[in-house]
Design brief:
The chain has 367 residues and is an alpha/beta fold. The chain has 17 helices and 13 strands. The strands form two sheets. It has a seven-stranded parallel beta sheet with strand order 3-2-1-4-5-6-7, with helices on both faces.
Length: 367
């Protein structure tokens, strides 16, 4: 069996790592990197630390407007798929790379498998929401991390080929957490004490491209009387400079983007995390670190329902109050975990199960 895996952004590298290791034990994987994230801090370091093989193809698309970027990816991926003729195209998450890979495969009548299917924010202004909805509707196999995701697909009439497998990011985090404790020296390099700082990340377009929202978030950071470590995404850095907001971050411990092991170490030791990242919301939950989400909605509603995550939007007072008042309960339900996710995904891709899906029967997977 030959599987073409499409990745392009750092969350996808994390999700693909355990699946790639499992696939290559018995099958052929063709790894296609769109180049959506392209510099060392956003791409190469993740391949090294997560022990992902070098891409078979690197399209070097880079950044750009959504239409331009997605169109270039679509053309480049189509050329690779025509040359490789894989049995499956495997896509992850909700980026432009995800959508381009799914569309290229669907138009060539190659079966699409979507890891992290069924997530919904119900906010169609988010580019990620458009990407994930369209990808789900052209996919043959849909691998859901939660029952909520399964229910979302059912509400849209998608029930065939849907599998509740758990979250592959949980497997990646388990793999990285022990390595981070041993290998990462970032706490020592930054002079940080355990549970003596907040960790903040901001990268989503809804926050970075809106000067009012970005200013309000940075004002909240400035109002918090705790050290804040702030790895700045390139998009965020550009907008801070364009909107003349550099004075807002002068008292933060601003650092360049870090690799996965350093990021996991920062998450493990933070007192609290403030973020608009979906992946970091999950990692905070699994690591038992309270989280304030800098958005008005989240796909990971289970973390909010459990009391470990609170939605604070981009309002200064709400963010400050959330940091002050959030007190998670002692117990933490084991939602969203995925210790068997990789095995179930690889099993579902086997040719005999592919035929079952083609015949409109949903395979029964056993653990």
């Amino acid at each position: 069996m030959k599987v073409a895996t499409i990745v392009g952004a750092r969350p996808q590298f994390i999700k693909a790592a355990p699946v790639s290791r499992a696939l290559r034990q018995q099958h052929t994987e063709v790894l296609i990197h769109t180049g959506q994230h392209y510099d060392d801090a956003m791409s190469a370091v993740f391949f090294r630390e997560l022990e992902i093989p070098e891409p078979d193809y690197n399209l070097d698309i880079g950044s750009g407007p959504h239409g331009q970027q997605t169109g270039a990816m679509l053309a480049g991926i189509e050329n690779v798929l025509l040359a490789e003729r894989p049995d499956w195209v495997l896509v992850y998450g909700d980026t432009n790379s995800t959508l381009a890979g799914a569309l290229a495969a669907a138009k060539l009548h190659i079966a699409v498998a979507h890891v992290e299917a069924g997530l919904r924010s119900f906010n169609r202004r988010m580019p990620e929401e458009i990407n994930r909805v369209l990808t789900d509707h052209v996919s043959t196999l849909l691998f859901c991390p939660t029952q909520t995701a399964v229910d979302n697909l059912a509400a849209e009439g998608i029930t065939q080929g849907v599998h509740l497998v758990g979250d592959v990011m949980h497997e990646a985090l388990l793999w990285a957490a022990e390595r981070a404790r041993v290998q990462s020296t970032i706490l020592e390099r930054l002079g940080l004490g355990d549970k003596r700082y907040l960790l903040a990340t901001v990268h989503r377009a809804e926050n970075t491209d809106d000067p009012t929202r970005l200013r309000a978030i940075l004002d909240a950071f400035a109002a918090l009387d705790e050290p804040i470590v702030f790895p700045i995404h390139p998009r965020t850095q550009d907008r801070i400079e364009a909107f003349d907001l550099k004075s807002k971050i002068k008292n933060l411990k601003s650092i360049a983007p870090v690799g996965y092991l350093d990021m996991v170490r920062l998450e493990q030791s933070a007192r609290m995390i403030l973020t608009d990242s979906g992946g970091i919301q999950k990692e905070a939950y699994w690591l038992g670190v309270p989280c304030v989400t800098l958005r008005d909605e989240t796909e990971w509603v289970e973390t909010v329902e459990a009391g470990w995550n609170v939605l604070a939007g981009a309002e200064t007072e709400r963010i400050v109050a959330a940091v002050r008042d959030l007190a998670p309960p002692g117990q933490k339900p084991t939602w969203m975990q995925g210790d068997q996710a990789t095995r179930l995904i690889v099993k579902a891709l086997l040719p005999d199960l592919e035929r079952e899906v083609a015949n409109c029967t949903t395979p029964t997977l056993t653990t």
